[in-house]
């Protein structure tokens, strides 16, 4: 079974929904023409039910869209301008349709919840200075883990977040152990991570196990991707409401 990934290019307001199979083969599925999207989305993340939350720092607002089985995208709920902070640089979905918003400039965050009707509420404020200020990409993993990546350092950390939205470092990923040109990352099923590099149109699909060991699985050569994608996120089917991996095992133990 394949996962679907939405690639978005802000410069033209265009996109592509691509599929990635269990062997990490990626193919275009549906082209979304230039002008189909607004051009000011600065972050987005896939939610359960094949929904996408788009966020605009300039407008301090957003929209939640749905993507059907034929990759048709429709607006579902507008998030009014001015209703969000303007400094979020990364957004990623967690289990239970919680959303982590991260601000690079202040090293702060907020964990919000979003229900099936697309109502968003603040749950936990994470004060300035709680995070490092150089994370350039974040991806949510199974077992309520989060991968933070720094392009500046070529390293990162895998953190855990519990039901009370308490975040703790779990495993550092040493500086220099990753390439420094990844501009987008997204987690797909099986605790795989797609890394995308805009400058060369290249990528890597890695795997990460329950002990947070990361290994390269498939190299996607330069020129395989377009070079104008500014946001990339996997879609999440409805069953993504459920916890997977380590958290599910602990819950049912």
Keywords:
disordered C terminus, four-stranded antiparallel sheet, mainly beta, 49% strand, 253 residues, 1 helix, globular
| Main β-sheet description | 4 strands, antiparallel
Mean pLDDT reading = 91
Overall geometric form: globular
The number of distinct β-strands equals 20
| Helix/strand order, N-terminal first | EEEEEEEEEEEEEEEEEEEEH
Radius of gyration from CA coordinates = 17 Å
Explain the overall architecture.
This protein has 253 residues and is mainly beta. The protein is 3% helix and 49% strand. It contains 1 helix and 20 strands. It has one helix at residues 246-252, and strands spanning 3-9, 14-20, 26-32, 43-47, 51-56, 61-67, 73-79, 90-94, 98-103, 108-114, 120-126, 137-141, 145-150, 155-161, 167-173, 184-188, 192-197, 202-208, 214-220, 231-234. The strands form 5 sheets. The protein has a 4-stranded antiparallel sheet, with no helix packed on it. A 4-stranded antiparallel sheet has the order 4-5-6-7, with no helix packed on it. Residues 240-253 have low confidence and may be disordered.
Strand-helix topology:
Elements: E1 3-9, E2 14-20, E3 26-32, E4 43-47, E5 51-56, E6 61-67, E7 73-79, E8 90-94, E9 98-103, E10 108-114, E11 120-126, E12 137-141, E13 145-150, E14 155-161, E15 167-173, E16 184-188, E17 192-197, E18 202-208, E19 214-220, E20 231-234, H1 246-252
Antiparallel strand pairs: 1-2, 1-20, 2-3, 4-5, 5-6, 6-7, 8-9, 9-10, 10-11, 12-13, 13-14, 14-15, 16-17, 17-18, 18-19
């Amino acid at each position: 079974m394949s996962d679907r990934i939405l690639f978005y290019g802000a410069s033209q307001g265009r996109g592509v929904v691509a599929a990635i199979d269990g062997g990490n083969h990626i193919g275009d599925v549906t082209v979304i023409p230039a002008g189909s999207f607004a051009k000011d989305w600065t972050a987005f993340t896939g939610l359960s039910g094949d929904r996408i939350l788009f966020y605009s720092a300039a407008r301090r607002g957003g929209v939640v869209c749905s993507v059907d089985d034929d990759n048709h995208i429709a607006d579902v709920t507008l998030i009014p301008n001015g209703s969000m902070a303007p400094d979020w640089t990364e957004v990623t979905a967690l289990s239970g349709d919680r959303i982590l918003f991260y601000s690079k400039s202040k090293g702060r965050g907020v964990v919000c919840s979003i229900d099936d009707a697309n109502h968003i509420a603040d749950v936990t404020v994470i004060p300035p200075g709680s995070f490092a200020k150089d994370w350039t990409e974040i991806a949510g993993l199974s077992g309520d883990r989060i991968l933070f990546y720094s392009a500046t350092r070529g390293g990162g950390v895998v953190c855990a977040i519990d039901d009370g939205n308490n975040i703790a470092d779990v495993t550092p990923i040493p500086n220099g152990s990753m390439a420094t040109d990844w501009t987008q990352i997204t987690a797909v099923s099986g605790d795989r991570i797609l890394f995308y590099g805009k400058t060369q149109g290249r990528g890597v699909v890695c795997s990460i196990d329950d002990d947070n060991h990361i290994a390269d699985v498939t190299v996607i050569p330069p020129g395989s991707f377009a070079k104008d994608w500014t946001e990339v996120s996997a879609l999440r089917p409805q069953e993504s409401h459920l916890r997977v991996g380590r958290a599910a095992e602990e819950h049912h133990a």
